[in-house]
Amino acid sequence: MSAVVGATREVIGLLAAGATGLLVGGLTAGLYFTSLAVAVGLVHHLVTWVTFTYTLHADRIELRRAFIGRSVKNIPLERIRGVDVSTTLLHRLLGLAVVHIDAASGGGDRQDGTLNAVSLAEGVRLRHELLGGAVTLPEETVYARVRPRWYLYAPLSGAYLLTPFALAGSFLGTLYNVGDDLGLINKNRLAHLGDDVLGLPPLLGFLLAGLFALAMPVASVVVFAVVNWDFTLRAVGADGTLVARRGLLTRRTVTLERRRIRGVEVRANPFERLARVVRLGAVVTGLGDASHRGRLLPAAPSGVAWSVAARVLGGPGPALTPHPRSARSRRVLRAVAAPLAATGAAVLLGQLWLAWTCAALALLCVPLGYDRYRQLGHGADGVHVSVRSGTLSRRHAVVEHRAVVGWRLRQSVFQRRLGLATLVVAVGAGEGGYAAIDLAESDAIALAARITPAWVTPFLEHQPADDHAAVPG
Amino acid sequence: MRLRPPAHRVSPRAIALWELEYLIAGLLLAGVAWGAAAWIEASQWPALPESVVDNIWWLPRLALSVAVFGVAAAPLWRYRVHRWEVSSDVVYTRTGWFHRHWLLVPVSRIQTVDAGQGWFERLLGLATLKVTTASHEGSSKVSGLRVEQAAGLAAELARRAHDLRDDAT
Predict the structure, then answer these.
(1) Which of A106, A163, A250, B83 has minimal Cβ neighbours within 10 Å of its Cβ?
(2) Number of independent structural domains in chain A
(3) Domain ends where: A78, A109, A134?
(4) Does B50 share its domain with B91?
(5) Looking at the structure, do residues B89 and B62 belong to the same domain, yes or no?
C-alpha cells in the first residue's frame, strides 16, 4: 500500500509542477516531462513497495529491504521504547497509517524503523504486539483531554505567534517562484520594488501592519488547535503505558512505556505564568525528539497539569525549598553584568546614546534577576527529586531517584566566597542533567547524600574532633 | 556537610603537560591579537571610532598578560585541585581550577570507560581517563594520569561496570 500513498503524493506534486511547465513551456514539453516524471515516480514507489517486507518474530521484528541495496534490520522487541502510529489526511482517506518504531541499541545508538503505509488496523495490532503483546483488551483510563477553551492559550507561548510570518514568508516565496516561472519578474521590477512599496499610500501600510498584528494571535490559535486537536492522554493496560493522541489533519499517537518514564518536566514562560498556564512533558530515556514526543499536555491550566503530573509520578512530588539569600544578589548581578559592561564600553568609546540604551537595559534586567532568584528551588522526598530554575523559560523537573546516574557539584571562585554551589543532577534521560543553581554548599551535598547515601557518605568530610577547641576558656 | 578531597593526586608530570598546553594556547592567542591589531591599524577601519584605533596596541598586551597569567598560575593551580579516587562502587573526581567540579559517578551506571593519549601526553607518558554514562553531565574526565595507571583503571572499571550494570539509565 505504501506505493499508493507515496505515488499519490508524488502525482499531486508533479501535477502542480507540470501545470507550471505547461504554462511556461507550452503544451507538449510540459505534458512530456510530467508524464515521464510520474511514470518514474510510480515505478520507483512500486519497486520499493514490492521489495520491502517486514516479519514479526517472537523476539524481534525484521525489516527487509531489497531494492538496489539489500538491507535487513532486526530490532529486538525488548529494545523498543515506543511505537508511534500517525496518519496524514491522505493516509486517513485510504485507511492507512505510518508506524514508527523507536528503539535503542546497546551502545546508546539509535535504531529506528519506519513502516511507511500499513492499514490502520494492522498498525494498531503491531503497536500492541511490539509493546508487550499479551494485552488483548486493554483497559483505558483517560488522564487528561484538552478543552477547546485551552486553544486560546496558544498566543501566550512565543512559537505559535510567529506562524503568520512563516505563512506570509512561504506565500511570498511561492509568489516569487511562480512569477519567476511566468517571466513576470525581471531586474527592472526588482530594482523598483522598494520605490513601488514606498510609493503605496501609508494608510495601506498601516492597514497591512494592523492586519498582521490581528492575524498573529488568531493564526496562532488556529495552528495550535490543528496540531493539538483533541489532545488526549490515556493510561493503557495493566502497567499503565501512556498513550498521547492529538492532531486534526495528521492524527498522531505517541506511546510511552511506563518503565522508560523517569519523571516529568513542567515549563512556562512569564506570560503563561501570569495566566497560570504550563506545559507538561515526560522525562523519558532514549527518546528522540523528546520535546515533541514526550509531550503529556500542551498549554493547560497549571492545576490540571500538576494533577496529571501527580498521576504519572504516582504522588504529588516534593515541595520546593527556596535557595539562600546570597543567591539573590548573585542572580541580579549576573543579569545586569552584560548590559553594564556594554554601558562601560560605550562610555569609553564616547557613544553616549548607546551607553544610555545599555544603562536602561541594565535597569530592566534588575527585576529579571530578582525573578530568577524567586524561581530557584529544590526538594526531595522518598521517591523523587525536584529542581526548578529559569525565568524566561521556567523549567521545573521532577525525576525519580533511580533515574540519577551521577552528581556534579560545581563551584566557581565567586560562589566559593559566598558559600554557594550548583548541584547538577545527572539523569540518563531528557536533557541529561538538571541543575539546582546556587544552593548553600552544605545543602547541595546533603541533598545528594539524602537521595543516594551509598554514593556520597563515604566521601563526606569527618567533623573535626577538636570542634569545641575554639570555645574561649 | 562537606565533601573531602579524593584520595589521589594525578602524576606531577601533568604540570609539565598543562604548562605546554597553556604555553601553546597563550602564544596562539597573543599572535592572533597581534595580527588583528596590526591589521586594524593598517586599514584604519572607518567603522571603529578613532579612540579604539589609536589604542589598539593594548589588545595584544592584554592577550599576552592573560597568556602569562595562564602559564604561570593555571598548571600549578590545577595540580592542586585535580584529584581522583575509585572506591568499591563510585568514581569520585575533582577537576577544574577557577571553576571546580566534583563528580560522583557510580560504577553501576558507567556505560563506557576509555584511556586516551594526545601528542603531548604520549611524550610525557601520561593518559586521560574518560568515564561515560548515559548523561553527559555525569561523564567525567581525568587528565594527567600515568599511562599504565589509566589503562589499569579503565580495564578494571569496565569489568566491574559490566558485572554491576543493569540498564544504566
Answers:
(1) A106
(2) 2
(3) A134
(4) no
(5) no
Asked if the model's pLDDT at residue A470 lies above 90, the reply is: no
Distance, CA of A321 to CA of A262 (rounded, Å) = 22
Q: What is the pLDDT of residues A158-213, one digit of tens each?
A: 777 777 777 777 777 777 776 666 666 666 666 666 666 666 667 777 888 888 77
- B109 and B159, same structural domain? yes
For residue B145, give its domain range. 83-164
Q: Is residue B6 part of a domain?
A: no
Q: Please give the average per-residue pLDDT across A335-355, as a whole number.
A: 88
ipTM value for the complex: 0.89
Handedness of CA B141, B146, B151, B156 (dihedral sign): negative
Within-domain flag for B109 = yes
For residues A329 and A325, what is the distance between their CA atoms, to the nearest angstrom?
7
> Residue B169 is placed in which grid cell?
539509565
| Range A246-259 average pLDDT | 84
| For residue A4, pLDDT beyond 60 | no
Helices (H), A182-269: 187-191, 193-199, 202-228
Q: Is residue B71 part of a domain?
A: yes
Q: What is the pLDDT of residues A378-421, one digit of tens each?
A: 999 989 999 999 988 999 999 999 889 999 999 999 999 999 99
Partner residue opposite A412 with nearest CB, options B1, B52, B98: B98
Q: Is residue B3 part of a domain?
A: no
List the single best residue of A79, A259, A407, A412 to mutate versus B (max B Cβ within 10 A): A407
Provide CB contacts within 8 A for B72, sequence distance 6+: none
Starting at the earlier edge strand, list the strands of the sheet with A377-380: A295-301, A277-284, A261-268, A394-400, A384-389, A377-380
B138 closest CB neighbour out of A262, A410, A426: A426
**Where in the sequence is the domain holding A27, given as residue range(s)?**
2-134
Interface of A with B in 435-454 (CB under 8 A): 441-442, 445-446, 448-449, 452, 454
Do the chains contact at A405 and B134, CB–CB below 8 Å? yes
- How far does A426 lie from chain B, in Å, by closest CA? 5
